[in-house]
Amino acid sequence: MSLAVVILAAGQGTRMKSRLPKVLHPVAGRPMLEYSLQAAAALGAARTLVVLGHQADRVRSVLPPGAEAVLQEPQLGTGHALGQARAVLGDACDEILVLYGDMPLLRAGTLRALISARQNGPASVLTARLPDPTGYGRILRDGAGNLRGIVEEAEATSEEKVITEVNCGIYCFQAARLWDILPGLPRHADAEYYLTDVIALAAEQGTPVVGVPVGDPDEASGINNRVQLARTDAVLRQRIRERLMLAGVTLLDPSSAFIDDTAVIAADTVVHPNTFIEGRTSIGEGCIIGPNTRVVDSTIGQGCHIVFSVLEEATLEENVRVGPFSHLRAGAHLCSGAYLGNYAEVKNSRLGPGTQMHHFSYIGDARVGANVNIAAGVITCNFNSETQEKYPTDIEDGVALGSDTMLVAPVLVGRGAVTGAGSVVTHDVPPETVVRGVPAEAVRRVRPRRSSASSASKGLS
Ligand code: UD1
Ligand code: CA
What we know:
This protein is α/β, with parallel strands linked by helices. It contains nine helices and 42 strands. The chain has two domains: 3-220, Spore Coat Polysaccharide Biosynthesis Protein SpsA, Chain A (Alpha-Beta Complex); 226-460, UDP N-Acetylglucosamine Acyltransferase, domain 1, CATH 2.160.10.
């Protein structure tokens, strides 16, 4: 059997009341369509087609290589959508699994069960028993329990409306039978062709259609509005927490750890309450993250300790300490053993191994060497408001920058140099030189120190 997965994602999602197409709304950090694509990939489908319509170009841009976009224009219903996929597929596959782009809680195991339940029949349908079936198509069964068809809410009689078994909208079809039936679907009062009608037409041909009840009703919930979006997000995040805890990550207050599906966290890391770990973030072993910390698209090596801080597109090597109340922005790179204290901001800069920056400092567009001591209130003046340009600062190994040093870029502070408190450095500082004043002038050579590393860590602060 060769399997094609067809994901229907052409609808507008009117009830979201959004400029963003529904299937691109993020759920636990991924556009919801990605979960359907992941499920398709887990099944090892020979072909994966995504039917697009509303804002097709925008949705197409998130498709992975290998997923084929099919345009449905105009959008005349779920039956019509599958017809467009048929035109692209031809007779390439003999089994067709239909998914929606708005059901991120579906598990691949459920889909496998649906596929194997079909056996040689024309179709299998995923069903769910919901206490409140409002809005869903209802499953019609005959006296013997065989599936007779599906009726949509709008067309259901009052007896049919009390049926609590609903159509999840996920089907596995034998391709030949499906392609045979599809062109003959009736058009409904709303001018649409319903894929659900295939079930009654197949059942009429005498071979039974199998209804497969889903074990976990959460899996059946589609997202149509923002209330359902919030509920689905909560369920998915709880799954992520459990996956991580079972893999050796401690979450001290699981309900207040918000971790995206895209994040990777190694064992023996402890996540403290009220912490957000987002996007393409990876965190190594034995870290302590939080409380009250937000980490976005960042790479953190093992043994790091981050408290009450915000990290965006930052890289931390091993055993780095950050916070409380520090802000690492895009391109911040802290080498092993670097230490950032409170109210420190680093942007697009590399801080070498063992460099310390404890209080109220800003380093931007800079290269800072190893074992540099950055005392309170040091600032790289990297932006020239007259030229509207940013300039680089170079601070070499073992430099000690005194409190309130202003480094007016572009500027270089040579190896082992020292700046006095309040220096405004407008010219390059030669190595092993003490400068001081406004603008900073050389006053003498640095006195011999026992070792540059130990003097740097004491600094002038
Ligand atoms: C559909 C089912 C209903 C089922 C419910 C489960 C039909 C007629 N009804 O209703 O029985 O209980 O799903 O959630 O199928 N789409 C297209 N092209 C179109 C129309 C829709 O690609 O022309 C896509 C949408 O983007 C969406 C999916 O098909 O991903 C379902 O469409 P939607 O309008 O949400 O169907 P429901 O009314 O929820
Ligand atoms: Ca729907």
